[in-house]
Write a structure and sequence with these properties.
Adenylosuccinate Synthetase, Chain A, domain 3, 4-stranded mixed sheet, single chain, about 20% strand, binds guanosine-5'-diphosphate, 3 domains, about 425 residues, about 30% helix, alpha/beta, Adenylosuccinate Synthetase, Chain A, domain 1
């Protein structure tokens, strides 16, 4: 059984929270793209955690957590993340964590290039997390990357690195920087060698697991609208955030997903730059940003999230591109303060109304058309059954189901594992 848990919107939908909840009883949880630009927040009986690289199944005994070949891994960051988890009593070893030999290593010069390029762009910056993600994926497609599997071949590592740096330094030098073979080798020795026992052929591992009928969950990073191909390019991430990429990034492109769970927020948030038609400003934005138990700041970057009403145009697109079977609606509790809840039902582009998500300049020009639904004005964070919900809240969920054309299966009303119920 292969299930993907993916983001419908701009990211930060609460995927970590849903993977932590739904991976109980799974055999494998696999992150299949992205790197430590992710910040998946989990709150459970062990505390509050923000995971950047380690899959969110790590808190369950008996779950193998796999970092797939579609990922880019900053080994220094992974090293620190694992030390942090261990310091809080989470046991991590090759018994419950493995890394694909096909995953790419995000090296210190990738991070450096990311920072230097954002600085060069100044007010035209992309809003990068500055963690080297675009440069390492760029190098992958230039066929100038190092993979985890290269650590298993130490005899040829130095030569591979020297060849790559002969090319890479042409770029770095134009920023006034340079990467040295010896420095990178020392870094790999310090932060890469400890992971050697974790490196596996993830394809073989997953093929066997699937053949044995094991339950495998693919954990996506970011959301549809940040997908490199189908998101708000170029203000996207550099990998595929879609469910369809799950089996590819994990290592089993020949296997089909059985089930896709789309995690969608009850309103809109967006970290970083790019068109965001429903954006609120001033006091209205401040009120929504601060309404939940935890204010809206990016989990990976600490940047304030841009906020707005639920966007049916973008969410319907998100749901379709992900091939969603069922939705997990998060953060419904946050809307409890509103008298009337704004929902964007269409866009207006050049004076014409559309309910299709546009791209390019048409997206940049899109103006939201709002309707207002009744609020419920009571705290719903203690609701644990659909019957506990005020009528207006249930109506809000039904409205969303109709607007995006898929059923809501899970409703999340708080950040902790148990703050949810099954709906419908
Ligand atoms: P992810 O990257 O998709 O895992 O999402 P993030 O962790 O970046 O952001 C989601 C934030 O919302 C985290 O702070 C979660 O603790 C919090 N959260 C998730 N679900 C709910 C919910 O239903 N209600 C509230 N109030 N917070 C939630």
């Amino acid at each position: 059984m292969l299930t993907a848990v993916v983001g419908i919107n701009w990211g930060d939908e609460g995927k970590g929270r849903m993977v932590d909840l739904l991976s109980e009883g799974c055999d494998v949880v696999c992150r299949y793209q992205g790197g430590n630009n992710a910040g998946h927040t989990v709150m459970n009986h062990l505390g509050k955690f923000v995971l950047n690289l380690v899959p969110c199944g790590i808190f369950h005994d008996g779950v193998m957590n796999l970092m797939g070949g579609g990922m880019v891994i900053d080994l220094e960051h992974l090293y620190g993340e694992i030390e942090g988890l261990r310091g809080r009593g989470i046991a991590i070893s090759p018994e419950n964590l493995r890394i694909s030999d096909k995953a790419f290593i995000c090296l210190p010069y990738h991070k450096l290039q990311d920072i230097l390029e954002e600085e060069r762009l100044a007010d035209k910056k992309y809003g990068s997390t500055r963690r080297g993600i675009a440069p390492v994926y760029g190098d992958k497609y230039m066929k100038k990357g190092l993979r985890l599997g290269d650590l298993l071949e130490p005899d040829t590592l130095e030569q591979k690195l020297a060849d790559i740096l002969g090319w890479k330094n042409l770029t770095l030098q134009s920023y006034g920087a340079k990467a040295e073979v010896a420095e990178i080798l020392a870094w790999l020795k310090k932060f890469g060698v400890p992971f050697v026992p974790y490196i596996i052929d993830a394809s073989a591992y997953l093929e066997d697991a699937a053949a044995e009928g094991k339950r495998i969950m693919f954990e996506a990073q970011l959301g549809t609208l940040r997908d490199i191909d189908y998101g708000i390019y170029p203000m996207t991430t550099s990998s595929n955030t879609l469910a369809a990429y799950g089996p590819i990034g994990a290592g089993v492109p020949g296997l089909r997903l059985d089930h896709v769970i789309g995690v969608m927020k009850a309103f809109s948030t967006c970290v970083g730059e790019g068109p965001f038609a429903v954006e609120m400003f001033g006091d209205e934005a401040q009120a929504l940003r601060g309404a939940g138990p935890e204010p809206e700041y990016g989990a990976a970057t600490g940047r304030p999230r841009r906020v707005g009403g639920f966007d049916a145009v973008a969410s319907r697109y998100g749901v379709r591109m992900q091939g969603v079977d069922e939705l997990a609606l998060t953060k419904l509790d946050v809307l409890s303060y509103m008298d009337k809840i704004p929902v964007c039902v269409a866009y207006e582009v050049d004076g014409e109304r559309t309910d299709r998500f546009p791209s390019g300049d048409r997206l940049r020009k899109a103006k939201p058309v709002f309707e207002y639904l009744d609020g419920w004005k009571i705290d719903i964070s203690g609701c644990r059954r659909p019957e506990d919900l005020p009528q207006a809240a249930a109506k809000y969920i039904r409205w969303i189901e109709r607007a995006v054309g898929r059923p809501v299966k899970y409703v999340s009303v708080g950040p902790a594992r148990e703050d949810y119920f099954t709906f419908g």
